[in-house]
């Protein structure tokens, strides 16, 4: 029986934005990931000595802002009208401005970490805060509109992910201000950095991946809908655990025990989502796994591994969360969404061109996607090994860079057919 809270599979394209709006984000994201991997290959072992290294922070923000957030913002601008039936006001202008601010701000922030430049930190703060505030403001206005029945679970996750983004932005702005005006502001950097990373990866990225999965996995992977215990109050419970873990961080005595309990429950909650998704993918209607399905399986296994590693090996946990979980889920999502949107555009233009569009599965070369996935997987495994054997960092980064460029070429080849 279908759970009452399961998100619908039917989509509404009445208010869908122009294809160029999400595609500018989707095609930019792999280039930032390739830039991060290339920078890591250039710098080599020093970039993995500690997660607090300026080189590591530069690479991390190229990935998290330039690739992960870039894709998530593009996906939201597409999903809100199509899935929920609500329109983002002035979506075209908002999207163009946010894309410009995000690109320039991410590059400025990475350069600021690399060079240790207060001026660049100020420029990055202005650009990133302006772009992200414009995006969250536009989405907030849009979500005052009533959404379509059946999209409750997706919308609940999106709202909480956007709230997590605001918290992440606030913490990031506080941290950047310390570097932008040295000696003027004194803050507990290590504690705030940990909270910033937690809200960014588990809140903004994690909750949004879950919300999108509620729609994307059943629709494109041909699985059953997610069970009610995940599409109900699950996202709210995870958000409240993030709040509790944040408020209790730095406490001692019984407060520290409360903090550890919240962290354990968070890990168990994300592991539950990963386990359920893997079980659904194992029972999908098509037994042969295409590259997108392989990517989602890799993402879920990486999420389980990251939750198991936890605080014991933070560098490996970061690699698993960013490159294993988030980047893999994004690749799997793009390999389904981009061909589908391109096919829909061709179908819409059929009345003008008079030509029957190819089947959606014919727009993307599965052989090329399989090779790209293989390069990504080997690069990910080498990057994990490099956390323990730093001499492997350059070949791992070079392979990841090649995989990201191949992803860009594959997506570009699909978009060029529109």
Automatic annotation (TrEMBL):
The keyword Transmembrane helix applies. Signal peptide: none annotated. It comes from the Bacteria. The chain crosses the membrane at residues 21-42, 62-87, 94-114, 120-144, 156-181, 201-221, 233-251, 257-282, 294-313, 319-346, 373-391, 397-415. Keywords: Membrane, Transmembrane, Transmembrane helix. InterPro entries: Cyt_c_oxase-like_su1_sf (IPR036927). This is Permease. It comes from Duganella alba.
